């Protein structure tokens, strides 16, 4: 199976190398192979085998886009990731794609920039994979991409199958109670992510997404929420010097506001559980004339 996958990927990359004709052939081959394609801007992908993200590979991307795909499944130990087609005109601090791996420890692996067609060198332990695409103002020569992944499954990733992943567009007000079933407790060894994207997945300066947290119950600081903000200049970053960027049981309420992407990561340890938390979110302009 590994040899077949490697041969197929090599063949598909050779077809493409960023050309429009090659991209069409890649999509035709993926269709023939009945490979599931995810074509929208962002989402949660939980298939265990092979899937492709095909985002605007043969059209010009839009300015100031923000798309996040969270890829995970209960038995995945790591992922192989290949860019089959890459039409972006990468601009530092403006337009690009990054791949980020999450584990069951307390930090996020450094993001890996994806800058061309070919194999992406991910960390060997990558049970949760986050793909973040962002564009700047000038996208006149940039087309999209096709990403192809394969999960390696096993039993040693150390993350609870009860973990949940969310990608939430803040165009409309909403709320999440976690765990999802009211009155239940979360489990040990969870890694659950909550990614909040700008309204309609478009970055608009001074139009802010606001997320508010209220506590139902966490177990001391063994179970906690880490807050990560996104910027095209440095990717995902957590700053513990900022109040409320690490939420423990002693914090009953907190809120965050940003005109960029925001990610909350909930982790629980191997002992003691509790009733979790409640999140509300909205989007509004804070610009005053």
UniProtKB/TrEMBL annotation:
It comes from the Eukaryota. Residues 41-152 form the CUB domain. Residues 1-20 form the signal peptide. InterPro entries: CUB_dom, Sperma_CUB_dom_sf. Keywords: Disulfide bond, Signal. This is CUB domain-containing protein. It comes from Orchesella cincta.
């Amino acid at each position: 199976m590994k040899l077949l996958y490697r041969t197929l990927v090599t063949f598909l990359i050779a077809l493409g190398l960023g050309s429009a004709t090659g991209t069409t052939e890649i999509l035709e081959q993926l269709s023939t192979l009945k490979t599931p394609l995810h074509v929208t801007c962002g989402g949660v992908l939980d298939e265990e085998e092979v899937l492709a993200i095909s985002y605007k590979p043969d059209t010009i991307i839009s300015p100031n886009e923000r798309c996040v795909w969270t890829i995970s499944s209960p038995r995945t130990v790591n992922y192989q990731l290949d860019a089959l087609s890459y039409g972006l005109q990468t601009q530092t601090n403006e337009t690009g794609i990054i791949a980020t791996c999450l584990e069951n420890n307390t930090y996020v692996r450094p993001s890996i920039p994806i800058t061309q067609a070919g194999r992406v060198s991910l960390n060997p332990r990558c049970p949760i994979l986050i793909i973040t695409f962002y564009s700047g103002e000038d996208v006149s020569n940039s087309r999209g991409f096709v990403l192809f992944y394969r999960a390696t499954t096993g039993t040693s990733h150390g993350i609870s199958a009860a973990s949940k992943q969310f990608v939430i567009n803040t165009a409309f007000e909403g709320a999440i109670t976690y765990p999802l079933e009211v009155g239940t407790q979360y489990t040990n060894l969870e890694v659950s992510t909550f990614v909040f994207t700008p309204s309609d997945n478009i970055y608009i300066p001074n139009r802010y997404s606001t997320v508010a947290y209220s506590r139902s119950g966490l177990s001391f600081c063994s179970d906690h929420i880490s807050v990560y903000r996104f910027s095209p200049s440095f990717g995902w970053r957590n700053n513990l010097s900022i109040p409320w960027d690490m939420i423990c049981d002693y914090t009953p309420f907190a809120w965050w506001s940003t005109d960029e992407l925001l990610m909350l990561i909930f982790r629980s340890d191997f002992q003691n559980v509790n009733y979790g938390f409640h999140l509300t979110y909205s989007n509004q302009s804070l610009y005053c004339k």
